[in-house]
Amino acid sequence: MDFDEIDRRILNALQKDASQTNAELAAAVHVSAPTCLRRVKHLRDTGVIAREVALVAPEKVGAHLTAVVEISLDIQAAERMAEFEALVAPEPAVLQCYRVSPGPDFVLIVQVADMPAYHALAHRLFAGQANVRNVKAYFSTFRSKFETSIVV
């Protein structure tokens, strides 16, 4: 999709603060309020803006442990990969799931309260799955950067 400078300014401003009113956003990107409203609607309708969310501080809600988990499957056929994705998709603690290559088949970003909660999740999602060959988890000791913005 082609973006002009106004679209880029709108997207960058919304990624920094999506709670702005249309008037505030229009002023920030130097366009009229009707133009801004029309542009934002178009960006939503075309799926460029996938959704707008609130970012929650994990430590403030008791989710103190972040794990980056590598998963290797025994069988990498497309339907078996899709089965694994369907297994982890409804799990609230799995924040992100990526098919990757080379190396493991999947990398998951997991946010849980503590190590017992991680063990319960690992037992529930991985230990009982015949197609899961290997699980390797890395536990975050400090998060020095976390961004959600994509430069457009």
TrEMBL record:
Highest classification ranks of the organism: Bacteria, Pseudomonadati, Pseudomonadota, Betaproteobacteria, Burkholderiales
InterPro entries per record: ArsR-like_HTH, AsnC-type_HTH_dom, Dimeric_a/b-barrel, Tscrpt_reg_AsnC-like, Tscrpt_reg_AsnC/Lrp_C, WH-like_DNA-bd_sf, WH_DNA-bd_sf
GO-annotated cellular components: cytosol
Protein name per the record: AsnC family transcriptional regulator
PANTHER family in alphabetical order: LEUCINE-RESPONSIVE REGULATORY PROTEIN, TRANSCRIPTIONAL REGULATOR AZLB
Keywords assigned: DNA-binding, Transcription, Transcription regulation
GO molecular function: sequence-specific DNA binding
Entry keyword DNA-binding: yes
GO BP annotations, alphabetical order: regulation of DNA-templated transcription; response to amino acid
Entry-linked Pfam families: AsnC_trans_reg, HTH_AsnC-type
HTH asnC-type domain segment(s): 3-64
